[in-house]
Amino acid sequence: MYINTEHEEIEVKFLDVDKEELEKKLLAIGAHKVKDFFYRHVAMDYPDYRLNKDHSWIRLRDEEDKIVLAYKKRLGVSSMHGTNDEGMEEIEVVVDDYETTKLFLHKIGFIEKHEAEKKRTRWQKGETVFDIDTFPALPTYLEIEAPSWAAIDTATEELGFDPSTRKICSGNQIYKMHGIDVNEYQRLGFDGLVKKEVPVSNL
Questions:
Q1: 82: which DSSP letter?
Q2: Beta carbons of 88 and 75 less than 8 angstroms apart
C-alpha cells in the first residue's frame, strides 16, 4: 500500500483543445509521450450525501497499471458547479483490487454516485505532467500538473495558452458546463450515458 502525503494538487485545465495540434506543441517544447491510458472510476458518498454537501467525494479509479482510492475536496468554492476554485485537496492510497475495494466501501456504508470512463494520453517534461483527457460526451481538454504554481505558469507560457482561461475544477464541473449533471447518471461510458432510475436532486 502506498499513501500520497502531498494533499494539495497543483494542477489546472485548459478546455476544448485540439489533441493533434497540442501534441505537436508538446513535442516542440521538449516533452515526451509517456502512455495512452483507459481509466474507469466510481465516485462514492454516504447515503445522506454529506461529502457532496462539503464539496468532497471518494473516488476509486482503475488506472490500468494501478488501482487508486482517493479523497477529493474542492477548495475555495465560489459555487457548486463553478470552474474557478482556488484548488483541490487530494489524499491517495494505492490498493490491490478494484472490485474488492468497491465492495469494502459498500460494506462500510458508502453508496455509488456514478461510474465513468476516461481516455488519457500522458506527456511529461521534467516534473511537469500533461494529461490530454477525453470523457464521454465532452470535448477533449488538457490538464497540467506540476510541483509548483511557477512551473504551471512556465508550461502555460511555453504552450501559448492564455493563463486567464485556465480552470481549476473537476471533470463533473466540466460536464455541468456542457449541460450534463452527472448526478442524474448511473454510468458515463463511451458506449453511452445511462441515467439513474431515480435522479438525485439538489447535489
A1: -
A2: yes
